[in-house]
Amino acid sequence: QVQLVESGGGLVQAGDSLTLSCVASGRTVSGTTLAWFRQPPGKEREFVASIGESGGTTYADSVKGRFTASRDSAENTLYLQMNSLKPEDTAVYYCMLLTPDGTPYWGTGTLVTVSS
Description:
Number of strands: 11
Structural class: mainly beta
Largest sheet: 7 strands, mixed
Low-confidence stretches: none
C-alpha cells in the first residue's frame, strides 16, 4: 500500500522561506511523476508543481521563480522549497504520486500559514 506523508508546514511571516517534504512508502518513487498541490481556505485544490523522473519540472504561474520542486529517489522523498512566501500561499499542501499506469496517490497534507 502506497503512503505519502508530508511534513514541514507551519506558521511563517511574509517573505520567509519554508521547505516541505513528502516521504513515500510502499513503492519506490522511481518511474513516477511527483507533484505538489495546495488547497487555500475555502477554495478548490490547485496545482503547484510537478517533477518527472528525469527531473523536469513544471510550475503554476503563481509560484514560478519562488518555489522549487526536487526529488531524491534514494530517500524516496519529494521536496518543495518555498521562498518569498506570500499570504496568498496559505493553504494545505498535498503531495501526489502518479504511477506509470496513471494511478494517483495522495498524502494527507500539511498546513502552511503565511502571515502578513
